[in-house]
Amino acid sequence: MARHLPQSISQGQPSVKHALSVTREQDFAAWYQTVIAEADMAEESGVRGCMVIRPWGYGIWERMQKLLDEQIKATGHENCYFPLFIPLSYFEKEAEHVDGFAKEMAVVTHHRLIQQDGKLVPDPEAKLEEPLVVRPTSETVIGAAFSRWVQSWRDLPVLINQWANVVRWEMRTRMFLRTAEFLWQEGHTAHATVDEAMDETLKMLEVYRVFAEDCVAMPVVAGEKPENERFPGAVATYSIEAMMQDGKALQAGTSHFLGTTFSQAQNIKFQNAEGQQELAQTTSWGVSTRMIGGLIMTHGDDDGLRVPPRVAPYQIVLVPMLRDTDEDAAIVEYCADLVHRLNQLDAFREPVRALLDKRPAKAATKRWGWVKKGAPIVIEVGSRDVAGGNVSVIRRDRLYRADGKLDSQIVAKDDLVENAVAMLEEVQAALFADAKARLNGAIDDSITDLDALKAYFGASKKPGWALVQWAKPTGADLEKVVQWLKGEKLTLRNVPSDAAPADGGCIFTGGAAVERVLVGRSY
Amino acid sequence: MARHLPQSISQGQPSVKHALSVTREQDFAAWYQTVIAEADMAEESGVRGCMVIRPWGYGIWERMQKLLDEQIKATGHENCYFPLFIPLSYFEKEAEHVDGFAKEMAVVTHHRLIQQDGKLVPDPEAKLEEPLVVRPTSETVIGAAFSRWVQSWRDLPVLINQWANVVRWEMRTRMFLRTAEFLWQEGHTAHATVDEAMDETLKMLEVYRVFAEDCVAMPVVAGEKPENERFPGAVATYSIEAMMQDGKALQAGTSHFLGTTFSQAQNIKFQNAEGQQELAQTTSWGVSTRMIGGLIMTHGDDDGLRVPPRVAPYQIVLVPMLRDTDEDAAIVEYCADLVHRLNQLDAFREPVRALLDKRPAKAATKRWGWVKKGAPIVIEVGSRDVAGGNVSVIRRDRLYRADGKLDSQIVAKDDLVENAVAMLEEVQAALFADAKARLNGAIDDSITDLDALKAYFGASKKPGWALVQWAKPTGADLEKVVQWLKGEKLTLRNVPSDAAPADGGCIFTGGAAVERVLVGRSY
Fold this sequence. Notes:
2 copies of one chain form a homodimer.
Chain A: H1 28-38, E1 42-44, E2 51-53, H2 55-74, E3 78-79, E4 85-87, H3 88-92, H4 95-101, E5 107-110, E6 113-116, E7 119-122, E8 127-134, H5 139-149, E9 158-167, E10 181-191, H6 194-215, E11 220-224, E12 236-243, E13 249-259, H7 261-266, E14 269-271, E15 277-279, E16 281-288, H8 290-299, E17 316-320, H9 328-343, E18 346-347, E19 350-351, E20 354-356, H10 363-373, E21 377-381, H11 383-388, E22 390-395, E23 408-412, H12 413-441, E24 443-444, H13 450-459, E25 465-470, H14 475-487, E26 491-492, E27 495-496, E28 515-520
Helix pairs in contact in A: 2-6
């Protein structure tokens, strides 16, 4: 892997030479891949469409899992585990759901291999009577379980979640954003009434919004997806949409009100308090490793990734500047003591995660490695620091001074310990504030005709989104809108829950508008 | 599901009527299935060989994951994630490994479904050029990654772990013990020298031993497996073996020294300090959801499961005895306050996990539900308890008094809080001590000839194991021994690391013995 260290920075040039070989401005897509490689997040696996998630990328996912799992449990859900394989017959029961996924399902047809002409092949004698699909999502197989669990209104609600891998055979893949296999959590619930199921759908949407904003420091717009963007089988789909630095939208989490679609298909019936049989109302909701792609494109800069402290595997990394001299032992000891003291602290109601990087490499290489990985605070300690009781502190959210030099501050060791928690809170807040300002500044709600809409998206490379008024057409009328947008490489994102009421005409049909919908390019 | 409540116990009969419909003595296999059903651990999924792990079962797995993961990280390993699918060509490179797994692999051959005569079928147009195997274990695909990561001796060791699902198409399945899909962690490491790789192999075996004994309270015997029981491709395989209550052995974790088998197949080479190319020495080691089967058969009794506090999702469960009267609110408040106080405590260096069970069901039903689930401490609170400032405490490890009555102790609320941590520690220690005494008492090391061995295993229903001296035959000589044992439904378990040196003749060959090996029935 090419190492590209901006040595020039410490030589005092005013113009910054950044750590990555490509900037966001030059080529956003290439920059994204470069961040993933240089931050040791993930790599191609050699297996089509599947990636290897490396320790730093997986560590971020573990942090996301922990924080989101706490909220999923705090809202009354329990974790379970359901089979990876789903019999075809389960899918046949729900036509719309099948249509949505049939084109991209991995199908298991055999259960044994044999040698033939020196090559391994599926054994024709070991063909499955009924092929199995590798789950693309688990509504059908979890619905089958719910039908066993639910008999009476007393058994409701059922509030379940699973952390699992799923497979969708995407033809064009992109690391974290769209991979054949990905990791996610999928919540599945069953309720006695429409109101309860809808409350659940919106409650989990709000859990996702708070998670994205408070933990990932990624501002999002929560709202309902238009009909054409619904999950296959859903009555209503809600999403959180985040804006990437290139202005494109990333759907970062969805919550579906499924009505009785799957309770009909899987026979989830209960006896109500009046003794009558009713179909349960179900929901499902999911967040995946895609969120990591969102984190990269929200917070990354031309020096690599910047990880918000709450989801950083390590929040503070200490790099001892060793020179193969007698002083090395004292430096390491000094650092070890500091790590010990930092790890005693609590930030965000959890113990601080500080690391002493003792690997046998040059301090500058290690420093830039952690900058590219986006550790929130990097601390360097040399023999002069030890003598003076100091450390050199680099904050990843503000790497350079106005003159373009690296902003490395010398701070007394005790002051660092005193201020470390506040500093982590500042980094978290600063990353969110930056992204929030960018989002707010990049939604144009003044566009009222299609020419202006075309001009907005045609004018610049990074137009952001348009919030337009529309009549919420359905069926063929909606399809016409969707096709027109497709011609402009645009999509409908969602109808923001907090948008102002409509007060004008529909930008697409000219009729009276009923609500405002977000339009944008998207991942 | 049939509810079988031993109401008779509280009516004071001296002979205990247990909560399960079948006892261990009557039918151990049926008892095992009954515990799993009555403790809401898992159920058949309708998908061949795959189970649904329900919240209580999955909650135990989450506890195991947390505690084992801490140790895996404390010993320097990092978590990653590798693809679910493995191309056939990866397997072709290592013949012995293929032979071990080819007979039981799920094979993906298509990536799309189409409708045909109203049925879903794999699309013949969407056949994969190279079929993919659903990973039965990941040596090959992780080895391919290691070959990219390792260039120089400076890149070693590589210390990686992943938590994942794997699939082995077993024809005869049994929940938790042998399922087509199961959950596990698999550690994979690469080293510069044989010594380092062997140290790693034995270090992780010790991590497993300590985890099994200290966390799951399941005593085990750690040792090397004989040649015929090695992992396909391993140079040496070590295991921890636990004794179930029916005397059978359960292999509960394995650690493999793989030598250069996989570095040859996957080309994991490094330049050593002298500038020469060398093959890396690799290891792998795994613990799976099988451990939950071991927990059940180690600690379960005729009233259901008994979960050691360290791996119990909830350690203390409060059951308010409500009667639809005005007093109910005060009882619930009293319990909520108690749960709050208990959750402030630390046991085993973690916060105590106490739960208030507010479900709308009868207190007796709830009490027996938690007894069957094996919550370590169940506390009942009625209006008289509230008035007196007391609670009624049931310890799951000693459910009955000598006269057969339920041993429910009235304790002052403050005393409970005072003693809760000590009580949890006592339950943990008592479960281990019981199992340890059973294990120690059921290994016969006095058997020196095959007739005596036959007699030992033929004599009683629960013979335990025999520790016999042997000459450690190999190849065809070993095969002869294995076949003879097979005729007696016996297997070689392992050569205990802490066994006394051999000092007699080989029980199988009559030659001089070189070590002692465990013989037993097994799962």
